[in-house]
Design goal:
This protein has 7 helices and 8 strands; from the N terminus they run H-H-E-E-H-E-H-E-H-E-E-H-E-H-E. By secondary structure, the protein is an alpha+beta fold. Strands 6-5-4-7 form a 4-stranded antiparallel sheet. Strand 5 and strand 6 form a beta hairpin. This is Transglutaminase.
């Protein structure tokens, strides 16, 4: 099945990924429990950082992402897909565009907009259906902004944090770009350049931007 295959980016046979999933490699844990555990681990052990954009191929290898303490939504989604596939859980990357309504000052300063694109999510196939989730926002970050962290129960989608605890609008989905078998790096480059043209210096290659 194509959604179980490894690739240059989803290199789940790498020792770094194998060490990450080791605690879930036992017969007493169900596939549902493994999916929930891996989702929570990736969500919380890598702090969310949207302000560093690296567009080199090497940056999007799951084994490289796993060695860093932070990641943006796409990077954390890639890591989770690699972990899922390593555990024989069919999974794929899902991309879209979102608008953030809280703590937007730095986003607007750096990106010129409170719209984030591409926003990375994950779809996993469990018990005969595809379920979508977003592992981007770690629990400590959610606590800081008074937003309930997204919990995945293995039965339902878990990708939309629409309101904070006070009922204020937090996150809004604007566009759905669909799912991808592998990391669509060229699509991502075009998407970023289209939405944030000002961050690109025309005299340098599209490889890395620290905002």
């Amino acid at each position: 099945m194509k959604y179980l295959e490894s690739s240059y980016y989803l290199d789940y046979d790498h020792p770094t990924i194998q060490r990450l999933i080791l605690e879930f490699k036992n017969d007493s844990t169900t596939q549902k429990e493994k999916a929930i555990g891996l989702y929570t681990k990736v969500r919380d052990q890598w702090k969310y950082d949207p302000y560093h954009i690296h567009l080199s191929k090497e940056n999007y290898k799951a084994s490289n992402i796993a060695t860093r303490p932070t990641g943006n939504c796409v990077e954390k989604s890639i890591l989770l897909v690699a972990c899922f596939r390593a555990m024989q859980l069919p999974s794929r990357i899902h991309l879209g565009k979102v608008k953030n309504h809280l703590a937007v000052e730095r986003l607007i300063e750096k990106f010129g907009s409170n719209e984030l694109t591409p926003h990375g999510m994950v779809s996993v196939y469990l018990n005969g259906k595809w379920l979508k989730m977003s592992p981007a926002f770690n629990k400590t970050l959610c606590q800081k902004f008074n937003v309930a962290p997204l919990e995945f129960d293995g039965e339902n989608n878990s990708f939309l944090q629409q309101f904070n605890e006070e009922g204020s609008l937090f996150m809004e989905y604007l566009e759905d770009y669909g799912h991808f078998e592998d990391v669509p790096l060229e699509f991502m480059k075009r998407n970023i350049k289209e939405h944030y043209p000002h961050i690109f210096d025309t005299n340098e290659s599209m490889t890395e931007f620290k905002l």
